Give the backbone structure.
Amino acid sequence: QMRSEVKGINIEGGVAKSLVYERKGELRTVGFRYLVGADGVGSVVARSCGFDLGGYEIIPTIQYVMVNCRIPERNMIRVYLGNEVAPLGYVWVFSKNEYMANVGIGVRGKPAKPYLDRFIVRHPEFFGNAKVIKEGGGGVPVGGQIRELVKGNVVLCGDAAGQVIPITGGGIRSSMAAGSIAGEVVAQAIEAGDPSVLRDYSVRYSEPWGSRISKSLKVLRVIETLPDDDLNTLGDLLSGEDIIDLANGLDVKRVAAKLMLHPMVAVRIASRLI
Ligand SMILES: Cc1cc2nc3c(=O)[nH]c(=O)nc-3n(C[C@H](O)[C@H](O)[C@H](O)COP(=O)(O)OP(=O)(O)OC[C@H]3O[C@@H](n4cnc5c(N)ncnc54)[C@H](O)[C@@H]3O)c2cc1C
């Protein structure tokens, strides 16, 4: 049902049986055999069905759509790190063309908006005459995937399950992959008449996505302890490909091995990444 809001899930004898939703001010109930909770951050399905949300951490983000910018490149994204710029997060500038850009920030433990506004003021070369035409944002779950993706006849996908790459906050591809696998597995469970088939969803998702998410989280836990000087050292030592591999949990071991060759960071950083 479009334009409906799920309010809660009815559980009977430990099995999710029906959901209550509101449409045009009226509460209605609909029954189901299987339920896919892809309802994002703050998932009603996750909470109503008693999924273990320990470790689920949401960071606030704010994003402006800005026009009249002067961004020199079209096919590049800019990312700014640093405890002064975005404590435990980053600022992004995604240019849509030379004049228009999505400019956003995610931070942890501090209010996001003052940092984003200050960043814009400090970069008159890009934003001197620019104007914000739209303000948005929302929470991004960066604490890694929740422990169990399946509970009886219910599966969780996407932000609801913390399926976001923690360092980048990117969750579109990982959430789409989850939805696609969940759809197939639910169809198989219906055919087999056996909810235990849903467990295949966790297994199939674990490689590559689950593994990427947990590796990226491990890297985040190291990076978030580093002062700006160390971040600059990493910036000097690592190539663009290294940073992508590290941030996305793709080949952390290779990058850690490369850092091991540098005495300045071998013990403090590289050894903790392995
Ligand atoms: C500002 C910002 C910028 C981002 N930029 C990027 C990016 O550049 N690249 C990237 O990969 N990721 C990005 N992300 C993350 C990405 O948007 C999410 O990880 C992704 O959208 C998750 O998809 P989802 O389907 O799980 O959740 P959502 O996209 O949040 O979809 C959940 C849906 O469920 C609906 N819903 C929720 N509760 C209920 C309810 N009770 N009843 C009925 N419907 C309900 C919502 O209306 C929504 O339509 C960004 C996030 C933010 C906040």
Summary: The pocket of flavin-adenine dinucleotide is lined by residues 5-6, 38-40, 44, 61, 63, 104, 136-138, 140, 158-160, 164, 169-172, 175 (CB under 6 Å).
